[in-house]
């Protein structure tokens, strides 16, 4: 139930489409993803459920999110959410972080800190690692951290030795979570709601 309306989402196996109903009438939702793994869940803990689709067969990974649209009493796709793979919410904020491998058997990767507001995404920080072993060089790899400036160019914030991740449980996963949870305030001025 949201604002007195009952929403049901179901997967229609005949058409291989997800159908969302409000009080038993079918809603037309633009760009509705057709992954059979989905649920209504309060992904960002604001007490309003989102319609969240998961990667097929990898339930831990969020594929895309539809936010509740109170004007149309429907759900609306968050613009460019696909640019932020596997998003995770930072508790009690409208901030999220992504993870994506960028090559070299997952040794190159990046994680983006971003905000979701009015069905739009906004990049506010970036961790980037390019740690592809190069036998010709004895390179000390780093985690490079950037922040978009007013014209959306990335400006360098700091670099940490890549070894830093070894001090965390779950390695880079623990580091990414901890870095964004502890540092997000340095990337945004108007922080949590
Ligand atoms: Ca919510």
Alpha carbon gap, first and last residue: 23 Å
Q: List the domain count as a whole number.
A: 2
Low-confidence residue ranges: none
User: Helix amount, in percent?
Assistant: under 10%
Global Rg: 19 Å
- Beta-strand content: 35-45%
- Helix and strand content put the structural class at mainly beta
Shape: elongated
Mean pLDDT, to the nearest integer, reads: 91
Topology at a glance:
Layout: E1 7-12, E2 17-22, E3 25-26, E4 38-41, E5 50-55, E6 58-69, E7 74-77, E8 88-89, E9 95-97, E10 100-103, E11 108-117, E12 120-130, E13 142-148, E14 154-161, H1 171-183
Antiparallel strand pairs: 1-2, 2-3, 4-5, 5-6, 6-7, 8-9, 9-11, 10-11, 11-12, 12-13, 13-14
Bound molecules: calcium ion.
Residues 42-44, 46, 48, 50 line the site of calcium ion (CA).
Structural features, described:
This protein is mainly β and 193 residues long. The protein has two domains: 1-77, no CATH class; 83-193, no CATH class. The protein is 7% helix and 44% strand. It has one helix at 171-183, and strands spanning 7-12, 17-22, 25-26, 38-41, 50-55, 58-69, 74-77, 88-89, 95-97, 100-103, 108-117, 120-130, 142-148, 154-161. Strands 8, 9, 10, 11, 12, 13 and 14 form a seven-stranded antiparallel beta sheet that branches. Strands 4-5-6-7 form a four-stranded antiparallel beta sheet, with no helix packed on it. A hairpin with a 4-residue loop joins strand 6 and strand 7 (74-77). The chain starts with 6 loop residues before the first strand and ends in a 10-residue tail after the last helix. The relative contact order is 0.11. The mean pLDDT is 91. It binds calcium ion. The site of calcium ion has 6 residues, from loops.
